Amino acid sequence: MKDIARQSMSIKVESMDLLNGQIKMEAHASATYLAMASWCEQNGFFTSAKFFFKQAEEEREHMMKIFNFLVDTGGNPISPEVTGINHDYSSIVDVFESTLEHEVKVTKSIHNIVKKAREIGDFATERFLDWFVMEQVEEENTIRDILDMIEVTGTEGVGLQMIDNQVANWIE
Amino acid sequence: MNVIFQSTYYTLYQAADQRCFYLDFGQKIVRMSLCQLLSLRHKVMNIDIENHFDSDFNAHGFEVLMLCNKEHLFILNTLEVLDLKKLVSHSFISLGLSAEVPEVTFS
Ligand SMILES: [Fe+2]
Ligand SMILES: [Fe+2]
């Protein structure tokens, strides 16, 4: 019996489902960072706004990377529905703390897919995610560095404006 | 044509020479590519069966299923949905595209 299915698709459907979930998560991250950019613009943190505009773009690139992987492997990529984007933040510190929280969630989700792919012997998916594992290390590190800078600078007096100016160091 | 899996109401066949699949719904046989089969899987697996037992969400326990770019329309009751879910999960295992041990819903 000719194996049409295996000839048409080179990953497991369980990986495909999880990757579709990840597509949604990256889209959600992109939309969340766009909301943060909006908040920063409206509250006078223009450098931070720039930082989040860039982050939003990067998250969309992550999403497209996974989307294209599903195309390449013969899967069924699903264009995500993105809802429930928070636009309310109590301070710029709150914005960056939420960012770190969000990135940690994304890291956990990616690790979970790697684990699952390994369990079911889906080597293509496992290797594909190598890049994402390392990317998450970088992203978490960036936000942690910014939070450290915030801590050192302090939020009193001109602190907030100094914080915003220094965010420029993390925009390549 | 080979049978990939047969459930209570449905049968999935593979037609290797035509590089496609046929899904026998009883009253109609639908020709499908693997992409369309994946799309069917997505739709069927996303049906929340618990809503069938909550009249606020699904008063009559019916599900409208459109297949192959809206070429076909099916109206399924709860038992048929469960059976189709079973067919889909077992079929993908038979096809070697799923590693999962399927949940046995009913026999
Ligand atoms: Fe990302
Ligand atoms: Fe990220």
TrEMBL record, chain A:
Function of the protein: May alleviate iron toxicity in the presence of oxygen.
Subcellular location: Cytoplasm
Enzyme Commission number(s) from the entry: 1.16.3.2
Highest classification ranks of the organism: Bacteria, Pseudomonadati, Bacteroidota, Flavobacteriia, Flavobacteriales
Name of the protein in question: Ferritin
Record-stated family: Belongs to the ferritin family. Prokaryotic subfamily.
GO molecular function, one term: ferrous iron binding
UniProt KW keywords: Cytoplasm, Iron, Iron storage, Metal-binding, Oxidoreductase
Domain Ferritin-like diiron stretches: 9-154
Species this protein is from: Flagellimonas sp. MMG031
Matches recorded under PROSITE patterns: FERRITIN_LIKE
